Amino acid sequence: MFIKSAQYAISSPRVEQCPAGNLPEFAFIGRSNVGKSSLINMLTGRAGLAKTSATPGKTVLINYFSLKTPSVSPVRGRTQDGGVANDKSLPLRGGSEGSLFFVDLPGYGYAKRGMQQRDELQRMITGYILRREQMMNLFLLIDVRHEPQRIDMEFIEWLGENGVPFSIVFTKADKLSKGKLAANVKHYLAELSKQWEELPPHFITSSETRQGKEELLDYIESILKQNDYQQ
Ligand code: GDP
């Protein structure tokens, strides 16, 4: 998939204020510092689009990026009526003539958040994921260097229970040797196999080397086609 342009569109504090209309959305989520901003920048080819955070866990808004691709038109999709968008949705910066949105969800699992902020964050994330029908797929980012973390495994289980369409994106592949990378991915998938009969799709990426960029963009394109967004 070729991305003609990408720009920041809006930040919403809650799902009710997400953009109106029925443009397809692809959401990204993961623990703080997993490399989410870097991945969004790498995929869109715009270095400063999503900010790479010096202070992990700061973002507590749902950030929208509007992407234009030559071949996508919002003819129809998973939702016919624009999902939960309503008159509370905020006006978009830069107009609404994009083809699709990338949605940057707040990072979870940041220990320094207070309990109240954690609860609010959880409500925002679950509200978005369960109610936003325009969301075609959720990309769950996992730092490939680490052992499977309980918070991620529980989240994956919750996604499965709720029938959320998602895939796994391993990040920071350049930080490991080829052998260690393959071993870690295999280990992670083996852990997942304990919960899942059929594994979700997975991608191995690096924002440094751009590994996985074409695969991810092609995958997004295939989902758009499946949902009749693309002629
Ligand atoms: P976020 O908090 O999930 O948005 O993570 P960021 O994108 O801000 O990345 C966190 C840190 O990891 C930053 O210092 C990035 O430069 C670094 N980082 C992110 N992705 C990669 C990657 O693919 N390779 C390497 N070597 N570093 C990365």
Defining key terms:
19% strand; 231 residues; single chain; alpha/beta; 5 helices; binds guanosine-5'-diphosphate; globular
Radius of gyration: 17 Å
Count of DSSP H/I helices: 5
The total count of strands amounts to: 7
* Integer average pLDDT: 86
Strands ordered across the widest β-sheet: 1-3-4-2-5-6-7
Main sheet characteristics:
7 strands, mixed
Distance between the termini: 13 Å
Helix content: 25-40%
> Which stretches of 5+ consecutive residues score pLDDT under 50?
75-87
What is the 3D form? globular
Q: What is the ordering of alpha helices and beta strands? A: EEHEEHEHEHEH
Ligand kinds:
guanosine-5'-diphosphate
Q: Which structural category fits the helices and strands?
A: alpha/beta
Q: Which strand-content bin applies to the residues? A: 15-25%
Report what the structure shows:
The model is unreliable at 75-87 (pLDDT under 50). It is built from five helices and seven strands. It has a seven-stranded mixed beta sheet, sandwiched between helices. 29% of the residues lie in helices and 19% in strands. The radius of gyration is 17 Å and the shape is globular. The protein has helices spanning 36-44, 115-131, 150-161, 178-193, 213-226; strands at residues 5-12, 25-30, 62-68, 100-104, 135-143, 166-171, 202-204. The chain is α/β, with parallel strands linked by helices. Bound molecules: guanosine-5'-diphosphate. Guanosine-5'-diphosphate binds at residues 30, 32-38, 52-53, 56, 107, 171-172, 174-175, 206-208. The site of guanosine-5'-diphosphate has 19 residues, from α1.
